[in-house]
Structure to design on (912 residues):
């Protein structure tokens, strides 16, 4: 939509809210929210994600109300050939190959996916922002070291690198002198090692152009220290790209965790993860459709929701990129 | 122990291979009436001619008969080579093959004499009659590192003058004597209860020294690719003797051996040609056999889902036969470390394990019977009955689903007042893929019932053996996915490598529970040199019971292997060889 029309629309909405005021002053967040809530798809995605968070937080009570403990085995729910039985009133999503309740395991799998999504994203964004700003602001040899390091990391095939890290750390007492334990920690480390580079590069690029702007020169001329300039002047101007890229790498991280668990180097058993459930469902897909359909569907919807939310956030924060 | 499927575990002389995880959902029978056709062997009136197609997933381990040590390879070895003794399809009793009669053993047990048949000839390009010197050379070359036979040390190391480690050239063994062309005499350093049984191994199939010596030179023998045959079939070759019928990983073509004389052999050899096609996915292979475009499965069991549909189809059901795999799968408990150094804790584990749920992870009753000791039912009067047969079950529970009350009583005896374990976490190293990973999950769940918190380390099946369970200093508390198959029907081949304290070695160990019970060791040393079969089987049966009662390892399944025949061929399953077809007895209808 054109800038003019948007302006008119904002004024009309504003006029409805505050009849007496002629000119409205709006903070960037108010502008963002006005734009965002017009995006129905993004709102649906947001609602879905909020529901998912509730499900993950209350996985315990929900599964005890409608299902069975996630690691309890019910061999009597397997037929005489060891084939699992499908959905029924007491096992809503059927059972898996050793008689565990798929419904409960899908709920608990949401915990893993969200934990990974939030923790891995937060850590990689934090590292990426700090190193990206440092490189972009100081330039020179600092920039050279950080940028070449990013180049080298990005030169590795992503999945293979993650596989290598995860499998090196998933045996025995973990790696890095026991600091990284097998399981969720390993997966998060593997994802962070790879993902901070993307955000680092983008932030560096933004800082390179920002640092030449007048307000930075003014700050420098008034004698502000580098740390003040970085955190007080530059950082607030980087909020938009940080938020946009964070929401966009969340679904990537969920998929990467699923892929690692699918390949057997992710979450350690018996904890449920959607990726690991899909791996177990593969050899019996033609006899137990429910075992890949439910975790697969949950993974699909979650990743889709985060992607749509990310798109919505980007459009709302940066209308120039919208079409 | 011979492998069912292809996972090699580092081979030193005498190191034996292990039950592989990949054995899919094989096996059968038990209580539920899911048994396929009984073994029906056509022995007369079958038609000559035609082609039989065998499908396999993997390749042979080694094409050289002196190097082969794998159930699938033996399907080819035994119809192309003639060891001194061999088995007919539906039997586990060895009969003379190259030998003219069963070996005679001297009173002191230290001299074994075998007479050879007259008129057995090598295939082209050698074309001459087989003599006792060819058998001597065949066994000697097994000790050469260039051939690296996997069992020469274990069974033939007892011959006087046999090397104790593999050599760099073919050694000359003074204890193998050839007084005339048709007589071979083995002088042993001590009596051996399994020596005569071992004469059925393909290592005793003759190899012509004057032809083979040039191929046996160097660090790795190439005789396999230039081998000559003595059986009814030979791998297709050219005039110089080089194989043309073997494309590794693709196919092996057997044609009739023109120098084979039917009068010297009990093999009917109906078909003219046999093709082993390799690289088949088990599901695809099963469907091809059902459709009739192939005739039988070689190395893979039809997957559980296929077996489920075949056994519920009245016409296809008769195409399926189940053969015991002569051994058991078991859960090994590390007897050197706490808490399983305490006998009562181990007995609690034996009581609590839900063997029925464990069996369901491999396909349920169709995979075999729940094992209650180690010598498997197919041994029958050669050890199984003596151990108490199906009635010997020191740790019984309803339906094999575990007895928590008895287990807790044992834990109390072990000093855990509540009846539940309260010490530190225990570790198991398990397969990272089904069905082994599922079995391990069921075991962890069973042990939780008596308070154990089991940490599972998941690795590939081969790494489970080579990095953890075969290395005593790295061994975890529990090895849940181990198993052992017999080389031949002597109970010593099941129990000695796996439970004798003297066989614990720093690497490549196969005594997984690290059991070193002086009383049991002593009984084994005695049984090893016992020559009277009746006494020997009784002794090993007793040893089996004693080992089971220590609960150092908990056996849970005696598996069976399903062999699926097309409707166009007659059946002939190798009972002695863990299932699979004997193609020399199969005929095209």
């Amino acid at each position: 939509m054109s800038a003019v029309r948007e302006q008119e629309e904002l004024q009309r909405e504003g006029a409805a809210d505050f009849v007496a005021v002629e000119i409205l002053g709006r903070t960037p967040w108010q502008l963002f929210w006005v734009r965002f809530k017009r995006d129905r798809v993004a709102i649906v995605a947001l609602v879905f994600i909020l529901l998912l968070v509730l499900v993950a937080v209350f996985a315990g009570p929900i599964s005890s109300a409608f299902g069975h403990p996630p690691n309890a085995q019910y061999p009597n729910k397997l037929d005489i050939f060891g084939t699992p039985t499908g959905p029924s009133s007491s096992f809503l999503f059927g059972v898996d190959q050793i008689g565990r309740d798929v419904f409960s395991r899908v709920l608990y799998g949401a915990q893993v996916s969200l934990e990974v999504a939030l923790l891995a994203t937060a850590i990689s964004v934090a590292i990426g922002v700090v190193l990206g700003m440092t490189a972009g602001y100081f330039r020179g040899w600092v920039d050279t070291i950080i940028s070449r390091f990013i180049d080298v990391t990005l030169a590795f095939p992503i999945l293979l690198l993650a596989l290598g890290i995860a499998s090196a750390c998933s045996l025995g007492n973990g790696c890095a002198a026991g600091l990284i334990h097998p399981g969720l920690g390993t997966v998060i480390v593997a994802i962070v090692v790879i993902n901070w580079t993307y955000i680092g590069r983008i932030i560096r690029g933004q800082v390179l152009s920002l640092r030449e702007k007048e307000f930075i020169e003014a700050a420098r001329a008034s004698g502000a220290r580098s740390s003040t300039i970085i955190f007080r002047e530059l950082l607030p101007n980087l909020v938009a790209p940080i938020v946009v890229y964070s929401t966009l790498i969340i679904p990537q991280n969920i998929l990467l965790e699923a892929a690692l668990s699918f390949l057997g180097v992710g979450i350690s058993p018996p904890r449920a993860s959607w990726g690991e459930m899909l791996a177990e469902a593969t050899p019996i897909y033609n006899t137990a459709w429910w075992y890949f359909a439910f975790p697969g569907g949950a993974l699909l919807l979650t990743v889709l929701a985060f992607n749509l939310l990310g798109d919505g956030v980007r459009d709302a924060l940066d209308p120039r990129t919208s079409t | 122990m011979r492998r069912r499927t292809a996972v090699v575990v580092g081979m030193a002389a005498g190191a034996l291979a292990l039950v592989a995880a990949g054995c899919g959902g094989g096996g059968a029978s038990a209580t539920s009436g899911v048994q396929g056709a009984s073994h029906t062997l056509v022995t007369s009136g079958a038609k000559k001619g035609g082609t039989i197609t065998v499908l396999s997933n993997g390749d042979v381990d080694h094409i050289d008969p002196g190097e082969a040590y794998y159930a699938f390879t033996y399907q080819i070895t035994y119809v192309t080579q003639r060891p001194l003794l061999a088995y007919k399809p539906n039997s586990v009793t060895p009969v003379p093959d190259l030998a003219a009669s069963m070996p005679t053993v001297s009173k002191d047990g230290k001299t074994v004499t075998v007479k050879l048949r007259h008129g057995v000839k090598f295939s082209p390009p050698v074309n001459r009659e087989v003599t006792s010197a060819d058998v001597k050379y065949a066994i000697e070359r097994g000790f050469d590192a260039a051939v690296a036979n996997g069992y020469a040390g274990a069974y033939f190391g007892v011959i006087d003058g046999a090397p104790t480690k593999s050599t760099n050239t073919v050694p000359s063994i003074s204890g193998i004597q050839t007084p005339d062309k048709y007589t071979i005499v083995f002088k042993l350093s001590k009596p051996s209860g399994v020596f005569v049984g071992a004469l059925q191994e393909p290592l005793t199939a003759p190899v012509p020294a004057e032809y083979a010596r040039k191929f046996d030179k160097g660090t790795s023998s190439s005789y396999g690719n230039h081998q000559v045959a003595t059986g009814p079939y030979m791998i297709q070759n050219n005039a110089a003797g080089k194989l043309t019928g073997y494309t590794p990983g693709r196919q092996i073509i057997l044609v009739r051996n023109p120098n084979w004389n039917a009068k010297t052999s009990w093999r009917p050899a109906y078909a003219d040609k046999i093709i082993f096609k390799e690289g088949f996915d088990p599901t695809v292979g099963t469907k091809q056999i059902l459709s009739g475009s192939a005739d039988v499965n070689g190395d893979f069991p039809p997957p559980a889902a296929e077996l489920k549909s075949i056994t519920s189809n009245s016409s296809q059901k008769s195409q399926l036969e189940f053969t015991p795999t002569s051994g058991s799968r078991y859960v090994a408990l590390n007897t050197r470390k706490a808490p399983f150094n305490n006998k009562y804790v181990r007995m609690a584990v034996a009581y609590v394990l839900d063997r029925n749920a464990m069996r369901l992870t491999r396909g349920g009753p169709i995979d075999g019977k729940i094992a209650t000791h180690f010598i498997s039912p197919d041994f029958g009067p050669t050890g199984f009955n003596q151990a108490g047969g199906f009635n010997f079950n020191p740790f019984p529970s309803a339906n094999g689903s575990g007895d928590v009350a008895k287990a807790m009583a044992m834990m109390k005896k072990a000093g855990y007042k509540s009846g539940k374990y309260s010490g530190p976490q225990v570790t198991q190293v398990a397969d990272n893929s089904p069905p082994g990973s599922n079995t391990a999950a069921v075991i962890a769940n069973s042990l939780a019932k008596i308070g154990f918190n089991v940490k599972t380390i998941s690795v590939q099946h081969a790494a489970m053996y080579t990095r953890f369970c075969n290395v005593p200093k790295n061994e975890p508390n529990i090895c849940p996915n181990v198993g052992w198959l017999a080389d031949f029907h002597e109970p010593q081949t099941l129990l000695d490598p796996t439970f004798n304290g003297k066989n614990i070695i720093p690497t490549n160990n196969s005594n997984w529970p690290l059991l070193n019970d002086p009383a049991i060791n002593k009984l084994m040393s005695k049984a090893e040199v016992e020559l009277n079969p009746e006494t020997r089987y009784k002794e090993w049966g007793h040893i089996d019971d004693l080992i089971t009662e220590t609960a150092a390892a908990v056996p849970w399944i005696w598996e069976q292997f399903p062999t699926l025949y097309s409707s166009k061929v007659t059946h002939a399953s190798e009972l002695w060889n863990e299932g699979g077809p004997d193609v020399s007895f199969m005929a095209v209808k």
Q: What stands out?
A: The mean pLDDT of chain A is 85. Chain A has 13 helices and no strands. The two ends of chain A are 7 Å apart (CA to CA). The CA atoms of residues 120 and 241 of chain A lie 18 Å apart.
